[in-house]
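Posting this for the archive.
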Amino acid sequence: MKIYLGVVHTQDLGSSEPPRHHHKVDLRSELTQAEISEYEEAERTLLTVRANAELFHILVWNLEEFIRGIASHLRAYATRNMDTGPPRLPHLDINRLALNCLSSMRTYLDHLETSIPRRHGAESANLKNFRQYCAEAYDSQFSYRFLYRLRNYAQHCGLPIGQITFSTRPSEQDASVPLHSLQIAVLRDRVLSEFDWGSLKEEVVAQQPTIDISYHMTETMGALELINSRVMEDELPSLVESAERIHDLVGTIQFDEGEPCNFRFEKDIVSEDEPKKLNTENLAFSRIPIDLALAVIRTGYDGILPSEESTRRDE
C-alpha cells in the first residue's frame, strides 16, 4: 500500500438536480511508514477525544431538554392550555426525557472506560485517574450512586418516573396569585420491590416515599462535569501533541484552496493502460482533520467541538 498527502479540489458544475461537482485529485508527497504511523496515531487521538467530548455534550443537552420538558408541561398545566405543551402525555414524555438522561450518563462513563485503556494502556495513569475520579464521585454523593443504579433499574425493570403530580397553591405574598408546581418522583417502594439495590438498599430505604429525581439529576450532573473536566485535563497534553503533529505533517504541502486528504493506493497509483491517469479503482481517501487540529492548537480542549453557533447552524 502507498499513502500520499494531497489535495482535493471541488468545482461546482452549476445549478442542477441533483447537484453535480467535479473533483480533482492533486497528489503532493508520499508518506513514509513512520509518517503513516505517526499520522494515524495522531488522528485516532483527535477523533477519539472528540467522540468522548460529543458524548458529554449529548448528556448535557439531554439534561437541558429534561428541564425544558418539565417547564413546558408545567406551563401547559398553569395556562390550562395543553396545546402549549409537548404533544405527548406528560407521564410518558417525562419518562422519555429521564431515560435519555440516565442512558447518556452511563454511555459516557462506559465509553471512557473503554477508550482510555485502548489509547493509553490498561496500566496507564490516565485510566487509574479516571477510575479514581468516578470512585470519588460515587463515594461522596448519594445522587450519583442512586442514578448510577437507577439506570440499571430503568434498563431492566421499568420506567424510572413513577409519579408526576401537578399542584397549585396561593402565593404567600398574594393569595390571589396561584403558584403552580410539578413534582417528578421515583416511587421508593416500587423500585425497592422490583430491583436488587445491593449495598445501596439501606440508603434507598431511608429516602422519602417519593424521591425527587430532578434534584438528583442536577447533583449528578455536577459530579459528571467535574469528572469530565479532570479527564480532559489529563488528555490535554496528548491532544495538543497530536494536533501539532497533524499540523506539521500537513504543513509540508500547500492547500490554499481545496481539502487536504490522504490517499491510499492498494496497488499501483497509475493505470497500466493509461500511465498518466490515476488508478482510481484501488484508491481510497479520507479528509485530514486539519481544522480540528488548528482549533485544538489555538484553544486547547475548547477547540475539540464546534461552537454553539455552528452547531445550531447545522441543525
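The chain has nine helices and seven strands. Residues 134 and 227 are 7 Å apart (CA to CA).
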